[in-house]
Amino acid sequence: MMNGFSIARVHGYEIIDSRGNPTVRTRITLESGIRATGDAPSGASKGTREAVELRDRDGSVKEAVDSVNYYISPALSGLDVREQTKIDELMIELDGTENKSRLGANAIIATSIAVAKAAAMSLSMEPFMYIGGARRHALPVPLLNILNGGVHAGNMLKIQEFMIIPVKFDSFKEALMASVRIYKSLKGLVAERYGKVYTALGDEGGISPPLSVTEDALNLVYTAIRNEGMEDRVYMGMDAAASDFYNHEKGVYEIDNGTKTPDQMIDFYLDIANRYPLLYLEDPFEEDDFKRFSELQGRLGKVIVTGDDLYTTNVKYLKKGMETKSTKGVIVKANQIGTLTETIQFFDMAKENSIKTVVSHRSGETEDYFIADLSVALNSDFIKTGAPSRGERTSKYNRLLEIENDHGLEYQGRKLLW
């Protein structure tokens, strides 16, 4: 029987992401007339175990859009939009593959997000309140990627992201505004040393100076922190994305104009942690090396070694990581697994085992701020959504500022220090 919560139509179409590539947007229309959309982000640096993004040979996503319009839409017609788990499981069953390669994870996640947003609207609830339910809600600590390397930039740096982490602040607004000052200081340093032309931005809004050596990038970021007098309040982080510079044939990492063995990489990271206020280190080894992740985490102590390509938001690989004690942190990317239901299952497994959680964007984003709500809904420790620049990044930060302003939620930066 139809009611105001029934899905009347599911419609998919192509839009463009922040790299100018086509991606999927799904629009859910309810019998009540309420409409909501969900967008599928896209990563440049991908784990091989990620759910499959369906993309045509010409780079378009017409096949994924067809999946929404000709398969998903008739299957969801008439269903109650509030039954998120039922709807997500139906799409998984409809796809029928382990990696969502038939319908495409991009088609499925765009629809899954749209369903959640439409349900929240139909109940006149904030998305974070609807998704989170009775959970405690707090504002996550941002991991701001202010200097870009790797596949996100046009320079020769192999480390993909150099981040600042504003921990010792009393509000999200205070933490973010301090980070903006550091970001601007870094921009000034790069302009002064290399010329204004090298303040060009990478995929995630960070500055992309003409560097090739990790130490030079770390020094620039730390100098910007010190110039703003923030060295006692702001920590540093890196996303190595090491799978992207690992030579499988030779078993070495090609970095800093040379090569390093896996054991030499351990010494490399330990040296950095000894000389810089490093709090966070993501994907320091290639995606199958659970053993060395574990060894490094054991030796780095309080540094949060984090798995992204290692886990790809999949409980199967998280279980393996827990058995080997590989990391203290996990990246949570809904499009890696394909549905919100599976994303939340992964998140909750990490939380229940005292693993730090990082709700994350992708390098190819849209202006949709959904992950800001998701991070608050699930009470994530961190959020990764790029530098404080470019609309597809600032939309998430501005949504978090809005949530803090309207709901007075606690900023949990100081609670992360143990």
Give a short overview.
The protein is an alpha/beta fold and 418 residues long.
How would you characterize this protein structure?
Helix content is 39%, strand content 18%. The protein is an alpha/beta fold. The chain folds into two domains: 7-124, Enolase-like, N-terminal domain (Enolase-like, domain 1, 2-Layer Sandwich); 141-416, TIM Barrel, CATH 3.20.20.120. Helix 1 packs across helix 3, helix 5 packs across helix 6 and helix 7 (262-275) runs parallel beside helix 8 (290-300). The termini are far apart. 52% of the residues are buried.
**Cα radius of gyration in angstroms:** 21 Å
CATH homologous superfamily of the largest domain, by name?
Enolase-like C-terminal domain
Q: Tell me the structural class.
A: alpha/beta
Give the DSSP E fraction (strand runs of 2 or more residues): 15-25%
Alpha-carbon distance between the two ends:
53 Å
Portion of residues within helices: 25-40%
Beta strands, count? 14
**Count of domains:** 2
User: What is the third-level CATH name, the topology of the largest domain?
Assistant: TIM Barrel
Low-confidence stretches: none
Strand numbers in spatial order across the main sheet: 4-5-6-10-11-12-13-14
| SS field, number of helical segments | 13
CATH domain class of the largest domain: Alpha Beta
What is the overall shape? globular
> Helices and strands, in N-to-C order?
EEEHHHHEEHHEEEEHEHEHEHHEHEH
The CATH architecture term of the largest domain is Alpha-Beta Barrel
> What is the average per-residue confidence, as pLDDT, rounded to a whole number?
96
For the sheet with most strands, the description reads:
8 strands, mixed, barrel
Organism: Metallosphaera hakonensis JCM 8857 = DSM 7519
GO cellular component, one term: phosphopyruvate hydratase complex
InterPro entries: Enolase, Enolase-like_C_sf, Enolase-like_N, Enolase_C, Enolase_CS, Enolase_N
EC number: 4.2.1.11
